[in-house]
Amino acid sequence: MINLIPSDARSSFDRGWLRGSHSFSFGEYQDPKNTAFGPMRVANDDVIAPGRGFGAHPHSDMEIVKIVLNGKLRHEDNLGNVAVTSFGGIQRMSAGSGVIHTEHNASDQEEVRLLQLWFMPHTRGLKPSYETTSFDPDALTGQLVPIVSAEGGPRIASIQQDMTIYLSRLSKGDTLSFQQAAGRRSYIFSIEGKLELNGEFQLSTGDTARVEETPSLELQASDDVFFMLIDLP
C-alpha cells in the first residue's frame, strides 16, 4: 500500500522569521488522524531567516535529526555541545531523560533550510546525547546512502531506534530498487524533482509517500531528483 501525500496537502505556515510545512500534527496544526507513521512523529521542512532561530527549549524521550539543505544551522545545548552545520552535515540529538537546546541560523545574510525529523526511541529515559556527522554529497548519485542508522558507522549518525535514513540523487531515467522487509514501512520525500514509485505513483517536489505492505519498491527518476527514504519498523 502506497499513500501519496501531495505537497499542498501538508500544513504550511509563515511566521516571517520562520516558514515551512508539517507532515504530521505539530504546534498549531493538529489532526488526530495524522500524528505518526510508525515511530516517526515529526517531519518539518523549515526555513529560518538570517540571524533568527529558536530560543532555549526542552525535549525529552525523542530522537531528533536535522538535515541541513542549505545555509548554516547553529546548535547549542546544556550538555556543552556547540555545532554549526551546513549541507552535507547531520545533527542527531537523543533527548532521553531531558535536554535543553537552542538552534539558530548561523548567518546574518542567508536563510537556512533544514529537514527536522523526530522519532520515538526504542527505550524511554535514556541518557541524553548529541552528535554531528557528515556525508559526501557527491556519493549520493545513483545510490541510497545511509546517513542515520541504529548501528551508526563511518559518516553515519547513530539513533536509538530500529531505522535507517537514506538520501539519494538520480538523473532522469535512472532507477533504484529497495526491498522492504516484512512488517516494515518506508517514508519517502521528494526534496527536489520528480520520482516515480513502482511505475504507478508520481512524486513531485515536496510530495511524500507512506509505504506499507509493499515488499519491493522500484524508484525511477522522471526528472533529476533529490530525495529521502526512511526505513521504519
From TrEMBL:
The Pirin N-terminal domain, residue ranges: 11-118
InterPro entries linked: Pirin, Pirin_N_dom, Quercetinase_C, RmlC-like_jellyroll, RmlC_Cupin_sf
Residues covered by the Quercetin 2,3-dioxygenase C-terminal cupin domain: 147-232
Family matches, as Pfam families: Pirin, Pirin_C_2
Domain of life: Bacteria
Matches recorded under PANTHER family: QUERCETIN 2,3-DIOXYGENASE
Family label: Belongs to the pirin family.
Protein name, as recorded: Redox-sensitive bicupin YhaK (Pirin superfamily)
Source organism per UniProt: Paenibacillus tundrae
